Amino acid sequence: MKSAYDILKERGFIEQVTDEVLIKKLFAAGKVTCYIGFDPTATSLHIGSLIPIMALAYMQANGNKSIALVGGGTGLIGDPSGKTEMRQVLTRDQIDYNAQCLGKQLSQYLDFSDKKALLLNNADWLTKINYIEFLRDVGQHFSVNRMLAAESYKIRLEKGLNFIEFNYMVLQAYDFLHLFQNYGCALQMGGNDQWGNMLAGTELIRKIAGKDAHAVTFPLITTSLGHKMGKTEKGTIWLDRNLTMPYEYYQYWINCDDADVERFLKLFTFLPLEEISVVKKLTDAQLNMAKTVLAFEATLITHGAEAAEAAWRASMEAFHSRSVDTDLFPSSTIPREVYGSLSASLPPLRFTASGSVTSAIPRYKVSKKDLKAGILISSLCAKAGLTQSMSETKRLIEQGGIYINDRQVKSVDEKFTIADFAGVTELRVRKGKKKYLIVEIRN
């Protein structure tokens, strides 16, 4: 039977390990307790945090104990890893509030009931440390020369590394020791930029506890085009639905590059590898079908079934049809009504506000009074957020990239008028091929 480590490696999560032979022995011996830290620098995590989150979810799903450690204590200092400038220093109240938000968010991915997984905050022990005792008992085990050789510090030394940041590695190592001694945690996982900090933790455990602990890092995930995960023209893709709507989240995945589909299905869904393996052979409509599955499953994991289905239905309406073949993806939880042959067409979708599918697409209301006077399409698109500015809208109109109900807008001077809404209460505005806005009349 495969261990969770084997599964993570097969799916592409593993980059560096302290000693693979010992790690495999650790998993072979029984249930493994592992942890990953999350910095509370904002009220929400973003797509870049999904690799560690999914790794913890896979660990739990395969019978191990996952610890999500929110850095309420280390957040008071700020991690210098991967940064050329000092992080913004947040107040204790800000960090505490952010930590609470992240805890709620992580519960979407991990089951914390009955201590099946643990949600901890290192402020609970770091803020109670006696400084002199800490220097004597822990600080003596760290070589300053070795710390300065760590990649995370070398980058900062060019512009200046302050003493507060210099302590970060020591505190993170102490976190690992604390979790090892109090929770039996023998494995830390995290991003490649944390490798030096993680090794410091394993060494501290060896020196103080006289036992082995282990570290695993994940690769930096970029798209096939070399772009950082989760970055779009509108900015960061957040996991909080109030910062990134589920529909926008869904669209991020469905618009991924063809070359990324198989890899993203392995990393960001729970679909079995034997189903995912067929993706490399798919083209055209079938590959688009695989993107639909990716988008639905990823949205389901982050936002739940209702939001995933609403986003899927909205996308189906916007793009008319995107069917899924049960023979290729039998484990997908996408609604079965869409299943069928690739040539099958679905009846037109109509939705109400209560379970409304079109509500997943951004909406913008206009008054009858303004419509009687006429509203410049270039102005409305910018105000509604479909475009970045009026100048961008005008440029897109000149290039033939703005559509009203699939009718191409021909002139930058064209306006929305009450006549456009003859017999209907809403219009669909499209930017390019994939971005939509619903404009509706406000009573």
CATH names the topology of the largest domain as Rossmann fold
Strand arrangement across the biggest beta sheet: 1-6-5-2-3-4
Structural class: alpha/beta
- Using the coordinates above, name the CATH class of the largest domain: Alpha Beta
Beginning-to-end CA distance, first to last residue: 62 Å
Tell me about the largest β-sheet.
6 strands, mixed
User: What is the helix fraction of residues, given as a range?
Assistant: 40-55%
The CATH architecture of the largest domain comes to: 3-Layer(aba) Sandwich
CATH superfamily of the largest domain: HUPs
Question: Which regions have little confidence, pLDDT < 50, spanning 5+ residues?
Answer: 82-86, 338-359
The number of domains is 3
Radius of gyration: 25 Å
Question: How many DSSP helices?
Answer: 19
Mean pLDDT across residues: 85
Instruction: Tally the beta strands.
Output: 15
Shape type: elongated
Strand residues, percent: 5-15%
Task: Give the arrangement of secondary structure elements.
Blueprint: H1 4-10, E1 16-17, H2 20-28, E2 33-38, H3 50-61, E3 65-70, H4 92-106, E4 118-121, H5 123-126, H6 131-137, H7 144-149, H8 151-157, H9 163-166, H10 168-183, E5 187-191, H11 195-209, E6 214-218, E7 231-232, E8 235-236, H12 246-254, H13 261-268, H14 273-276, H15 284-303, H16 305-319, E9 363-367, H17 368-373, E10 375-376, H18 377-384, H19 390-398, E11 402-404, E12 407-408, E13 415-416, E14 426-431, E15 435-442
Parallel strand pairs: 2-3, 2-5, 3-4, 5-6, 9-15
Antiparallel strand pairs: 1-6, 7-8, 10-13, 11-12, 11-14, 14-15
Helix pairs in contact: 1-3, 10-11, 12-15, 12-16, 13-15, 15-16, 18-19
